[in-house]
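User: Show me sequence and structure for the first protein, then do the same for the second.

Assistant: Starting with the first protein.
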Amino acid sequence: MPFFWDRIWVSPKPLFRYLIQFEKDLAFRKGSAHQGPAEPGNASSHIRQLEVLVEFLKGHYVSTIESRQALLEHGEIRFDLLWTLFPPNTIVYTESYEFNLPRCLKFNWSEEEKVRGGRVFVLDCCYLGYDGESLGDASILLVIEEF
């Protein structure tokens, strides 16, 4: 028996997190590509596909981009826009809980969660850790309470 989908929907949020990288990649490709017809598989076709993606993301998130930019110009951000600040593999600076010393983490993913009394923004990060016996990757969750 065949399986049919009525409608498939995927959130563009994960793609938005790469928007800056997409724009950089597009500028690089435009600068290094030989212009020619946009045939499948050639550089012109890849550039056009990337242009369509960037145009879509900028159009879909125009109010988000404008709100974030206006707030960041004043060193501010809203809780509901925190997700826009952290592209995957971003370096996150914080303080260690144990010693209140600076700590550098690599951001993996995030999600907003409802908890009793409000919402929190959870960042899953990793770092190079040493437990006295072995050196290796360690993970940590950072929690930002709603503000």
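Switching to the second protein now.
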Amino acid sequence: MIFNSLGLVPYESQHLRNSFKFKTDTGAIYEIYFTDGSSYFSEAQGFAPYVAMFGFRPTSAGTEKQRDARIAVTIVKHICDYLEDERNMLMYVCDQHDRREEQRARLFNQWFLKFQLGEKIQKIDLSFGELLVSFMFRYDNPFRYEIEASMPDVREKYN
């Protein structure tokens, strides 16, 4: 993985039901969660059962506020792990609760580039008003063309 070439090691994560938790060196606790995303697509679409919504959040603050590259590495590792099954697709919706969704989208795009995810993973970014969503799937996904063809329908459904 690209992490190793950058000298970065993901934090050890604890697997819960549909999520993972990890603790940073400063004591902050993060949750990475996966929920069913099939409802965004028609049941007739073959890939719908393989869609998950993905997100992450701090659940408790650490002792210091500082940039920690291992947080990004840990999150990206779980994205890659989920996409090990070439049929899977992830949706990342940038949280709007504090009106910082554009900052979250920029940060996520930086991670996508930094860790060279685009070598194996296609990412399609859509916006629905102020809602920013990234769809990610492997280039060898057997539903790739069906997924790509569904994007105008998704945009129309949510605009």
